Amino acid sequence: MRIDPTLRALADPTRLRIMRLLAAMELAVGELAQVLGQSQPRVSRHVRILCDAGLAERRKEGSWVFLRSAIGPGRAPPLGAAAAHLLAVAESDDAQFAARCSEDRRHLAAIRAAREASAAGYFARHAAEWDHLRGLHCPDAPVEAALLGAVGSANLGSLLDVGTGTGRIAELLAPRAAQVTALDNSPEMLRLARARLQHLGSDGLALVQGDFSALPFADATFDTVVFHQVLHYAQVPELALGEAARVTRPGGTIAVVDFAAHDREELRSQHAHARLGFSDEQMLALLGEAGFAAAPPTALPGTPLTVKIWTGRRGDALSPSFASKAAAA
Fold first, then answer.
1. pTM for this predicted structure
2. Scanning 8, 161, 245, 327, which has its CA 20 to 30 A from the CA of 126?
3. Top-level CATH class of 135-328?
4. % of the chain beyond a pLDDT of 90
């Protein structure tokens, strides 16, 4: 960051308001326009100035563009951190600015309500399908309790929830994590997750659209990586787990929650499952090849499907077989 663009970007009341809004939660450009009571093209111009100065970040999600603050705790360079501190102090010390920010945040309630209504509509449309799937295995509560036990009671550090779906597992594990990144390839699913997780705020949460076979993160970014009922969609699970190993720090943890091997072919034909579960032998081999030392799995029997939880700890280096595949790719 440079001082001149930073100060010029902040030298506008609307852009100051935008930065305080983005400190509260990630917002689409249209949502910002709604809160600010300004046209979308005008808000887009302000956003471009903030992004060019390094104060905000754009992220495309389907046909939507979302904005988040780039100067949150632990993510900003010193100049950015100083700018964030200045904005926080200004709101506490400048009564007029504080009143404007407070009014803006009241308008965020309408955004939150709209997101929740959209999520409720989606759940209503798909309720029968999801009820059928849930009826094939044990209830969610024991699975979630077992997952909490499997990942341990210690702080999970920087957490990646791969294939976050509705965001339920990210929500479950968030109290134990310093930072949560929820990834899904579906914009529709990310909208559901955003509605569920919006109370976490932008500093503790990042929602990212991406493919689990080509994770859009740098090496050794996360302390904990979770796949909850998502690996059975992978045509090449070796690639997904290899990518998970790449982005996991040495000593970090992976947890895979999925079905034990089964013969329910309708899940392949009707629900796009690429794999009909995994045997312990398969999963332990997959984890080992990716560079994880696996722990004994946990089984949660259901009728007819059994849910398994496999965990592993990342070694100091990627396995030679995966490293060679990555280099060839």
1. 0.74
2. 161
3. alpha beta
4. 63
